């Protein structure tokens, strides 16, 4: 079920953070507790569905995972978990996620279903189509952000979706690059689509996405209607720049990036930068709401 990857589902809380306004009274839980509760339920719904998808993906990839130096230690690939148990767990997790999603209303439930279908299509088909594989991977992150907004019924700037998509593409591209570098000659045996990529191509793609991400986030900080009109959110741009550069450093100098969630949790400077970005963003929204 890959608990470390549940960190990705934290994107559902973006809408909650960026919806802080004058109606929020920090000392009055009644003004924000219901929204926080719904966001937590949304997180749990996506986590249940994502965990089911991971089980299904690992069931399909047992043979190829055994060729990977790290993935061969996964429970199914190593034989520690029986496939029948994984199937039953996946079904139960899908049901749990669906029930939680339905409790948040039809719009959220619809997005959750789209996410589940998109993930299944990725596992069975789309991950074998060059460029589409990284795009679909990134769209999954956007669906989480959309779901978070629908769960608490707040409008979110299209810029936030654009930034989420570009940021997810940045991570997905570097994940492919790491796989290509790590597995070398055996890369295509583990993931056939890697035969369509080269490190040079991926570096070019990453350059385009990196620049686009910085520009999109910068524009978001002073054009989004729900942000302070004094453009104070521009103070968070340096944190985004540092986070991007730090991640690139880890990929190019330390050959990391294969598991983005592990990179964030293990690399102290990157983790601190993420926390500081969150704290400063919330502080600005609270002070200038």
CATH superfamily of the largest domain, by name, is: UbiA prenyltransferase
The proportion of residues forming helix, as a percent range, comes to: 55-70%
Q: Given the helix and strand composition, which structural class is it? A: mainly alpha
**Over the alpha carbons, how many angstroms does the gyration radius reach?**
19 Å
Strand residues, percent: under 5%
Large-scale geometry: globular
How confident is the prediction overall: mean pLDDT? 88
| Helix/strand order | HHHHHHHHHHHHH
N/C terminus separation: 39 Å
Strand segment tally: 0
CATH architecture annotation name of the largest domain = Orthogonal Bundle
Contiguous low-pLDDT stretches (5 residues minimum) are none
Task: Tell me the number of helical segments per DSSP (H or I, 4 or more residues long).
Answer: 13
Largest sheet: none
Query: How many separate structural domains?
Result: 2
CATH domain class of the largest domain: Mainly Alpha
Q: What is the element layout, followed by pairings?
A:
Elements (H helix, E strand, L loop, with lengths): L13 H4 L15 H28 L1 H4 L9 H4 L4 H21 L2 H19 L7 H21 L5 H26 L3 H4 L8 H25 L13 H18 L5 H7 L1 H20 L2
Helix pairs in contact: 2-5, 2-6, 2-7, 5-6, 6-7, 7-8, 8-10, 10-11, 11-13, 12-13
Short overview:
By secondary structure, this protein is mainly alpha-helical. The protein contains 13 helices and no strands.
Q: How would you portray this structure in words?
A:
The chain has 289 residues and is mainly α. The protein has two domains: 1-155, Orthogonal Bundle (Tetracycline Repressor, domain 2); 157-289. The chain is built from 13 helices and no strands. α2 packs parallel to α6 (106-124) and α11 (237-254) runs antiparallel to α13 (268-287). The longest helix is centred in the N-terminal third of the chain and has 28 residues, at 33-60. The protein starts with 13 loop residues before the first helix and ends with a helix.
């Amino acid at each position: 079920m890959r608990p470390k990857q549940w960190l990705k589902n934290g994107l559902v809380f973006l809408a909650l953070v960026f919806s802080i306004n004058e109606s929020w009274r920090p000392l009055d839980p009644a003004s924000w507790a219901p929204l926080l509760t719904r966001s937590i339920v949304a997180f749990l719904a996506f986590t249940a569905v994502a965990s089911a998808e991971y089980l299904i993906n690992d069931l399909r990839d047992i043979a190829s995972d055994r060729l990977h130096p790290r993935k061969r230690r996964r429970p199914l690939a190593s034989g520690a978990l029986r496939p029948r148990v994984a199937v039953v767990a996946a079904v139960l997790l899908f049901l749990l996620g669906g029930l939680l999603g339905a409790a948040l209303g039809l719009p959220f439930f619809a997005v959750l279903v789209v996410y589940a279908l998109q993930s299944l299509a990725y596992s069975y088909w789309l991950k074998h189509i060059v460029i589409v594989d990284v795009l679909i991977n990134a769209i999954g992150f956007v669906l989480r952000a959309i779901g978070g907004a629908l769960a608490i019924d707040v409008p979110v700037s299209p810029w936030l979706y654009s930034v989420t998509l570009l940021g997810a593409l940045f991570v997905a591209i570097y994940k492919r690059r790491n796989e290509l570098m790590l597995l070398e000659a055996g890369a295509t045996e583990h993931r056939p689509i890697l035969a369509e990529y080269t490190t040079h191509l991926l570096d070019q793609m990453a350059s385009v996405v990196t620049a686009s991400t910085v520009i999109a986030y910068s524009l978001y900080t002073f054009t989004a209607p729900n942000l302070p009109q004094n453009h104070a959110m521009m103070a968070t741009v340096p944190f985004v720049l540092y986070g991007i550069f730090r991640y690139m450093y880890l990929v190019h100098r330390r050959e990391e990036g294969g598991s983005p969630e592990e990179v964030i949790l293990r690399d102290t400077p990157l983790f601190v930068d993420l926390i500081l970005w969150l704290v400063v963003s919330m502080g600005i929204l609270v002070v200038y709401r």
